[in-house]
Design the sequence.
């Protein structure tokens, strides 16, 4: 999958694929055919094909293309929680200050806590136009580019 970027964390490379097991955690020290020995865990259900995941602490957070938010233990792939919201997602999750930000293609903007115990919604907002680009963090602010606007969100 060329859309979601690979991540390296906790000694594993997490890769999104286009196949049945869409998310793989691979040990990078392997050589040759590593399928039998190099794959630490696989995850197929509700894995994204476009949005990249985010690692916070020992957890991997993600949102699927169809709005299923999930938290996995990065070392084992064990599902900690999964929560369905509405929306179509292409933009990657961004973490700042213990919160994760997710923008959907129709302008929905979800903020939730990086909490491995449960999905904890902080806010849901609606932006004027849909969002295909991933948000960016600049200092203490968040930059969000929609199809028609560029927003800088902060405390000031």
Sequence:
């Amino acid at each position: 999958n060329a859309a979601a970027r690979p991540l390296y964390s906790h000694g594993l490379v997490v890769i999104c694929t286009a196949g049945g097991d869409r998310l793989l955690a691979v040990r990078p020290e392997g050589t040759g055919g590593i399928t039998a020995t190099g794959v630490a865990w696989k995850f197929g259900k509700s894995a994204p094909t476009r949005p990249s995941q985010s690692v916070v602490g020992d957890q991997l957070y993600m949102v699927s293309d169809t709005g299923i938010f999930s938290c996995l233990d990065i070392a084992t792939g064990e599902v900690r929680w999964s929560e369905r919201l509405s929306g179509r997602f292409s933009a990657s999750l961004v973490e700042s200050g213990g919160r994760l930000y997710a923008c959907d293609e129709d302008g929905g903007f979800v903020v939730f806590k990086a909490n491995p115990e449960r999905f904890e919604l902080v806010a849901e907002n609606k932006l004027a136009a849909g969002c295909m680009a991933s948000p960016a963090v600049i200092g203490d602010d968040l930059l969000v580019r929609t199809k028609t606007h560029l927003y800088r969100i902060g405390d000031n």
Q: What stands out?
A: The CA atoms of residues 6 and 15 lie 5 Å apart. The first strand starts at residue 7 and ends at 9. The two ends are 39 Å apart (CA to CA).
